[in-house]
Design goal:
Elements (H helix, E strand, L loop, with lengths): L2 E3 L5 H11 L3 H9 L5 H8 L15 H13 L4 E4 L4 H16 L5 E3 L11 H9 L4 E5 L6 H9 L3 E5 L13 E3 L15 H14 L9 E8 L4 E9 L2 E10 L11 H5 L4 E3 L2 H12 L7 E3 L1 H7 L8 H7 L12 H16 L7 H16 L6 H15 L7 H7 L9 H7 L1 H9 L3 H9 L3 H36 L8 E4 L8 H12 L3 E5 L5 E7 L7 H5 L7 E4 L3 E7 L3 H11 L12 E3 L2 E2 L9 H8 L11 E14 L5 E8 L2 E7 L15 E13 L2 E13 L3
Parallel strand pairs: 1-17, 2-3, 2-4, 4-5, 5-6, 7-10, 10-11, 12-13, 18-19, 21-23
Antiparallel strand pairs: 7-8, 8-9, 13-14, 14-16, 15-16, 19-20, 19-22, 20-21, 22-23
Helix pairs in contact: 1-2, 3-15, 5-8, 5-14, 5-19, 6-7, 8-14, 12-13, 14-15, 18-19, 18-20, 19-20, 20-21
Length: about 700
């Protein structure tokens, strides 16, 4: 019998979360039970605005990438964007290509097609050199292309690597690298898609067109204390805090020449809020002879943010919604920095609700879901912004035509819809050797041609489904037979009949079915083997591949999904290595039959308003599973068998004054044995929308159920 686990959470903690973050007790309970108690973590659940996205200039080397691209634009250089064949690679390539056009760069685009291997190739470098190209930008790849990047340098070609895959021990050089997984990258969240990294680069490029780019300055604020004054300062550049200063001074005790303040401020442009008041306090501290040359930020900020007019920093601080999410207690200088940052981004149209930003958010949404990024931190903001724009009726070029062909126009879109109904179609192009078809869908200007391309993508997806079905039928038997060979900790299939385009999807199915990591290897030509590995139960496959790196032509990927290639003659040695290695595989996840309960809902809480709570925790997926609720003593008043296979149940459950529709998949055998119409039952369920004739009501999707105790 499955275990229902409802973690105990202190009521005091729930009330603290509710009061500090102004959310209802049910939301606070779910946050606490899921262990989401860090202020920044909570912010990414309760806020959906792009304002809270991380600053791209937190990347240590992003200004180098910006400067090199601006040089290319100024000098009319030939630029090559080299991407990957999957959705992340296609969306990354699209996004960068569209932006470079706006600054006058007509870049070439290259994706691995046919049986070409993943990542930048020697042929691509050589062909670009013959065309007198001078800058290659890799997107969603490149971090493992050491030899190819060194070769490019020998030919006089610069390379910028914009990637998010795990780095190997030695980084490619010479190259400018923008990758959140690089040690010392400076970026606060490593688990974003390749397309999101490109988005950061583009925001940095857009910021470079403002007068604030690479302009260091200092913010200053004086706070009166009982018999002294506290002076706080921030050195900032590109809206990143570089250095802090805070000291307390008693008037007339110390000349400014003897303070640490003077060297901190020297050579800086200094700005403050309400300069006349600040100057009066500074004179009280240091006397009339000191001129601080302060610039007043009030005119600029109040013009861009009118609601700040006639307000002090202290009052603004007390009213601030965003500073409640800071770990450390903040004061007026932090409020001033936040105001300046918001005003500059708003004035520069970097947070505006424009179709250009919607285009990019929609691409980043597809990439994050397709690459199974954890739905935490800023991934939640990127996806929510993208899906919100879709549901407001705007679809970027390419998606409009694809949604039409996939019969999704006019429907409310969720991350799950994209995962099941859109991303497989886009991925099919790359899997079957035509990634350029997916790219053309997004960059083609003619709507009629885009519609033809959308039709072609659906045709490719149908082919992919057929190949995938055939591959799984072939792979299943071989995988089962391989289990004992790999100590019941791994399955491996290597077969000539499997198309390389479906190794990833086949490995995913095998891993899910056998609940161990799965490796599927195809042979696209006479000399080379290409493989995909997918993992489950929390097992990180990075080390397994690193242990065999001497065998590979190339390899790379993520902790739970990766790929590799090697010459055919290395296959037997690879298998022997895995036989030994598999003895030491250990899984970290708990029992498969344990259900984690987010909240128990009594009758008064299960109303139509529950959808607001569900929406707040969307999107659901990797690292953020759908909310699971428990309700006790619901009465089954109707039970019908549905589905072509007659294996599913449609139930009507009575709970107090309300009746709720419910679906219970693959549960027909439980009817009249474990429960029946008329029974009172305890139910674990998730909640989706049931839309009928324009009305929207909650629908329960049952995950487990049993008769209530008397």
């Amino acid at each position: 019998m499955a275990v229902w686990n409802k973690k105990n959470v202190p009521g005091e903690l729930v009330h603290q979360i509710s009061e500090r973050y102004c959310c209802d007790l049910l939301t606070a309970t779910i946050l606490a039970r899921r262990g989401i108690t860090d202020p920044e973590q909570i912010m990414f659940y309760l806020e959906h605005s792009s304002v809270v996205l991380h600053n791209p200039f937190e990347y240590e080397d992003i200004t180098d990438a910006v400067d090199r691209i601006l040089d290319a634009a100024e000098n009319s250089e030939k630029v090559l964007i080299f991407g990957d064949r999957d959705v992340d690679g296609v969306t990354s390539t699209t996004m960068l290509y569209e932006y470079l056009q706006t600054i006058g760069i007509e870049a070439q685009c290259k994706l691995p097609s046919g049986n070409e291997s993943y990542g930048l190739s020697m042929d691509a470098v050589d062909n670009f050199a013959k065309d007198y190209g001078s800058l290659i930008i890799t997107v969603d790849c490149g971090i493992s292309n050491n030899a190819e990047i060194a070769h490019a340098a020998d030919l006089g070609i610069d390379v910028i690597v914009v990637d998010h895959h795990n780095p190997q021990d030695t980084l490619p050089e010479p190259a400018i690298i923008v990758n959140p997984k690089i040690e010392g990258s400076g970026y606060p969240f490593p688990d974003i898609s390749g397309c999101a990294v490109v988005h950061k680069l583009i925001i940095a490029l857009q910021f470079s067109q403002t007068p604030y780019f690479n302009q260091p300055s200092c913010l200053l604020n004086v706070i009166p204390l009982n018999d002294a004054y506290q002076i706080d300062c921030l050195k900032i550049e590109n809206l990143v805090i570089k250095e802090r200063f805070s000291e307390t001074y008693v008037p007339g005790v110390l000349p400014i020449t003897k303070t640490k303040l003077l060297p901190f401020l020297q050579g800086q442009q200094i700005f403050a809020w309400d300069v006349p008041t600040q100057q009066r306090m500074l004179i009280k501290i240091f006397g009339q002879g000191v001129d601080f040359q302060l610039g007043d930020l009030i005119p600029f900020i109040t013009k861009v943010i009118p609601q700040t007019t006639d307000m002090s920093l202290l009052r603004l601080l007390n009213k601030s919604k965003m500073l409640r999410y800071q770990k450390q207690q903040k004061n007026e200088i932090d409020m001033l920095f936040m105001l300046l940052k918001t005003a500059i981004l708003t004035q520069s149209d970097l947070t505006a609700n424009s179709h250009k930003l919607d285009n990019d958010f929609q691409l980043a949404t597809l990439a994050a879901i397709a690459d199974i990024m954890p739905l935490q931190n800023e991934n939640r903001i990127l996806i929510n912004c993208g899906i919100d724009s879709m549901n407001k009726g705007y679809l970027r070029p390419g998606l409009q035509e694809l949604f039409s062909r996939a019969h999704l126009l006019g429907k409310r879109i969720t991350a799950t819809d994209l995962s099941w109904n859109v991303i497989p179609i886009l991925n099919a192009a790359g899997r079957l050797g035509e990634p350029e078809t997916a790219l053309k869908l997004f960059i083609e200007k003619d709507p009629a041609k885009r519609d033809e391309i959308a039709a072609r993508l659906i045709e490719l997806n149908n082919q992919r489904k057929s190949l995938g079905a055939d591959a799984f039928e072939i792979a299943d038997k071989a995988a089962r037979e391989s289990l004992s060979r790999f100590n019941n900790n791994l399955v491996l299939v290597a077969d000539e009949r499997i198309d390389r385009g479906v190794t990833g999807t086949t490995a995913t199915k095998l891993a899910q079915f056998y609940k161990v990591p799965a490796i599927v290897i195809a042979f696209p030509d006479a000399d080379v083997a290409v493989g995909s590995v997918r993992s489950v139960r929390g097992y990180d496959v990075t080390d397994m591949l690193e242990q065999n790196k001497e065998l590979f032509i190339n390899h790379g990927g993520h902790n739970f999904a990766a790929g590799f290639s090697f010459t055919r003659d290395k296959l037997e040695l690879f298998i022997k290595n895995l036989e030994k290695y598999s003895q030491f595989i250990e899984f970290s996840e708990g029992a498969e039959d344990t259900f984690e309960i987010d909240a128990e809902l009594p009758q008064k809480y299960l109303t139509k308003d529950i959808l607001k709570t569900v929406d707040l925790f969307e999107p659901f997926g990797e690292s953020n599973p759908a909310l699971t609720f428990l309700s006790r003593r619901m009465k089954i008043i109707a039970a019908d068998i549905i589905g072509k296979t007659k294996t599913h149940l449609k139930l009507t459950l009575s709970y107090g004054e309300n009746k709720w529709p419910a679906l219970y998949w693959n549960a027909v055998e439980k009817l009249k044995t474990e429960f029946d119409a008329g029974d009172y039952v305890d139910v674990l369920y998730q909640i989706t929308r049931n839309e009928f004739n324009g009305a929207v009501t909650p629908q329960l999707i049952i995950t487990d159920m049993h008769r209530s105790e008397s």
